[in-house]
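hey so i finally got around to running the thing on that chain from the lab meeting. sorry it took forever, my laptop kept dying and i had to restart like 3 times. anyway pasting the input first so we r on the same page abt which one it is
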Amino acid sequence: MTLRGVIFDLDGTLLDTRSAQDAAARAWATEQGDTAADVAERWHLIAERHYRRYQLREIGFEDQRRERVREFLGMELTDAEASELFSTYLERYEAGWQRYADALPALQRARAASLRIVVLSNGQAAQQMRKLERFGLAEAIDAAVFSSELPAGKPDPRAFHAALGAIDVDARDAWMVGDNWDADVCGARGAGVFPVYLDRENSRPTSQCRRVTSLAELEFT
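ok and heres what got predicted. didnt touch it at all, straight out
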């Protein structure tokens, strides 16, 4: 193997969006009269379930947002009502995004090693591009590929092949760096890409693949 390119996940890898999601969910739920201690975790599980449906193209992007609201509140809502309620959550969520301190330095090290860099995200293109541009990541990479523009997202091998095609690198000459075991690690393996598992919470020690707890641990030379 001659390392020529690196695929980076975005949410949970380069950007901390989970903290933003949790804070936004708690504030939004309080507005709806739900102050239970577990609201953030409930919202997360509901969001994961319906977003997975979107990734499988069972429902549309806006539909999965509406379904989150309906399930969380346990209410029958029109599309317009559900979308309006979601928008009040979304405003808080987007305001809470943060870039991990180790993200830009890792991209810069990869660039200094003459590697091609692509972000592969299971997200909607317009929103994900706003993240890259807002946090100064767009100019630090060569390409970005989003599942909203593909037949399927990670872990489908087609998503990885699209990312590799965007930087003209063979699977055997690339790494996939991401925080999601199923989407990033298992998905990369299925596409013939070497996985690097980012376990920021140090919660899943494993000997099954290379594992780091910070992007600062990555060396590309």
